[in-house]
């Protein structure tokens, strides 16, 4: 996913959930979305359960989490 698209959908704000990454305009944290995907829910199922989210929001959250994991992972020695 394009980095710009992720930035449009995933935001951090110190006044919302202590600055955890959330979907813009919501209080739905990226970590919740990733956890739901991890247990087998599809983006469509999550969007059905969270009407404020689109499938694209969910895909952006997963892409954001992957990018953060890559960014923070220690390089192999």
Description:
The protein is mainly α. Helix 2 packs across helix 4 (55-72) and helix 3 (43-49) packs across helix 4 (55-72). A two-stranded antiparallel sheet has the order 1-2. The relative contact order is 0.18. The chain has a single domain, classed as Arc Repressor Mutant, subunit A, CATH 1.10.10.10. The protein contains 4 helices and 2 strands; from the N terminus they run αββααα. It has helices spanning 3-9, 30-38, 43-49, 55-72, and strands spanning 10-11, 22-23. It starts with a helix and ends in a 5-residue tail after the last helix. It is 53% helix and 5% strand.
Layout of secondary structure:
Layout: H1 3-9, E1 10-11, E2 22-23, H2 30-38, H3 43-49, H4 55-72
Antiparallel strand pairs: 1-2
Our count of helices gives: 4
Element-by-element helix/strand order: HEEHHH
N→C terminal distance: 29 Å
Largest sheet: 2 strands, antiparallel
CATH class: Mainly Alpha
- Main sheet: which strands, in order across? 1-2
Structural domains: how many: 1
Features:
53% helix; 2 strands; mainly alpha; 5% strand; 77 residues; Arc Repressor Mutant, subunit A
């Amino acid at each position: 996913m394009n980095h710009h698209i992720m930035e449009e959908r995933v935001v951090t704000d110190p006044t919302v959930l202590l600055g955890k990454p959330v979907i813009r305009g919501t209080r739905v944290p990226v970590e919740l979305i990733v956890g739901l995907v991890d247990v087998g829910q599809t983006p469509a199922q999550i969007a059905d359960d969270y009407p404020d989210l689109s499938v694209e929001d969910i895909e952006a959250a997963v892409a954001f989490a992957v990018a953060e994991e890559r960014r923070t992972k220690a390089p192999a020695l």
